[in-house]
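Notes from hallway chat w/ T.B., transcribed later so I don't forget. T.B. wanted the structure written out for a chain they're using in a teaching module, and asked if we could keep both sequence and structure tokens in one place. Agreed to drop them here.
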Amino acid sequence: MTLDRLFFGLMALAGIAAGSALMAAPQLQNFIIKPYFWILIAIAAFDLGVYAMRRNAPGAMLTMNARLLGLVIGVVLMVVIPTLAGAPVRFF
């Protein structure tokens, strides 16, 4: 499994987790850290984990295109899940 595919899977899980949390408890939208920042925190945690495990070896970095696609995957899932469930959530 390539690093990109692992990252996309993690972003899908982060988006599903954020969307499910917002669906179950809509009051989380008023939390001090906004829900879309949860996805950015997951990206930063993944980058830090890769850096710590591979010690910045060549080829161990994600491209910017992969990071942006991961952000889009996470945010889309975070928005779609509560919207389809009918939860009264504001995202931005």
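Follow-up for T.B.: The chain has one domain: 3-85. Might be a good example for the class.
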